[in-house]
Known about the structure:
Layout: H1 4-10, H2 16-29, E1 51-59, H3 63-74, E2 83-85, E3 95-97, E4 107-114, E5 121-130, E6 136-145, H4 156-172, E7 179-180
Antiparallel strand pairs: 1-6, 1-7, 2-4, 3-4, 4-5, 5-6
Helix pairs in contact: 1-2, 3-4
Amino acid sequence: MMDIMTAAYKTRGVGSSLVVLMLLYGGLGRVKACVAPDCDHPDKGSCGTACCKLSFTMADKSEYEVALAFNQSIINGGPDSRFYEVELAEGVRNVADLRPFNVGVSFIGQTVHTTAKRLYNDTINFTISRSEGNNGSYVKVFSISQIGGAYGDEGQNFKNIAVLMKSVFQILGLDYNYTHVDDSCPAKEYDNNKFESEG
């Protein structure tokens, strides 16, 4: 299958722009892999490809407790059986302890999530640190589409985070909520910073 640039080159002339637009639209259509709920925060190439970054506060939970909840949420396929364990630079899987290095972050981790239609894999990275005031933990989670050219994700990167974090919060016995860290996977005007119900 020819790529968009080759198609544009071979169709120079009156109709070339229309052909390129049709191919581009078709390419965007192929990335529609998100299955509701939590597909309502689509991203448009915020990281040069689609991505999403959110932060979370776990009141009265230590970084270690949160790290254990992350690990438990990833092993054996995770809550939807589509999470994969990843070996980290520290030589361990899922979550690494950075506390001995005094780098300002207590734990770091990564997992790979396959979409419900099993079309794409996305990478989820996260850090866990002590929250300000020492009354809990602060977590940053970042999901990015692995496939190049995924300008739109139909909300899949937000959903990747939602599936993982619902499990983490459930294990910790906390109500889940989140904060948008940047302009990726933008908030809806009516966003209440809570994930959708599975029901």
